[in-house]
Specification:
mainly alpha; 8 helices; Vanadium-containing Chloroperoxidase, domain 2
């Protein structure tokens, strides 16, 4: 299982890099107009809510939460699901950390309402939020959750990811394209890891 995962990691980094170069070259002005419009329309309520919901994509929250979920899955006898969640989050962190300096996109030229110091593309928060919450949904499904439970979990995951993505734009630290790319990379990696772990278990 290790070799396909490493190869997949490399592919996702290359895809993220290519996507970043392509997006910044063809949609840079549209992204800039969008982030300026959002910054001009920010209200106190929007900012306050964004500062709270953005934690749904922070490693400060996700790492201990992932540890708790993985431990719960393992203790319940679902070790495959625990491994999938851990590999999903860990791999996504590697992906965005490598892609950011490769693309090297500067942060939006608007007031940043949260401290940031690295490049802008892709959004680490969006990548982490999408990979963790969707990996958790996939793990619940393979662990035997009912269709209704899976649908509810999916709806909650989508709501959290959308909220986190929106918060990064409202806080002025990411362009819309950054968060969209992060969500795509995170979701794709969660699906890939879930499938690879499932295949390894049946071989």
């Amino acid at each position: 299982m290790a070799a396909p995962l490493v190869l997949g990691l490399v592919v996702f980094v290359l895809v993220g890099w290519g996507l970043g170069e392509l997006w910044t070259s063809i949609a840079g002005s549209a992204d800039l107009d969008a982030i300026r419009d959002v910054a001009d329309g920010r209200t106190g309520t929007m900012i306050g809510v964004s500062k709270v919901v953005t934690w749904g994509g922070s490693l400060v929250v996700l790492v201990p939460l992932a540890a708790i979920c993985c431990l719960a899955f393992a203790r319940a006898g679902f070790r495959r699901e625990a491994v999938a969640v851990a590999l999903s989050l860990g791999g996504a962190i590697v992906i965005w950390h490598v892609v950011k300096p490769l693309v090297g996109r500067a942060r939006p030229p608007v007031e940043h309402l949260q401290h940031v110091s690295d490049a802008s593309f892709p959004s680490g928060h969006a990548t982490q939020a999408s990979v963790f919450w969707f990996a958790l949904v996939l793990a619940l499904r393979t662990a035997g959750a009912s269709r209704a439970q899976t649908c509810v979990a999916t709806a909650v995951a989508v709501a959290i990811v959308v909220a986190v993505c929106a918060s990064r734009v409202v806080l002025g630290v990411h362009y819309p394209g950054d968060v969209a790319a992060g969500a795509l990379l995170g979701t794709g990696w969660a699906l890939f890891v879930s499938e690879r772990v499932r295949r390894a278990a049946v071989q």
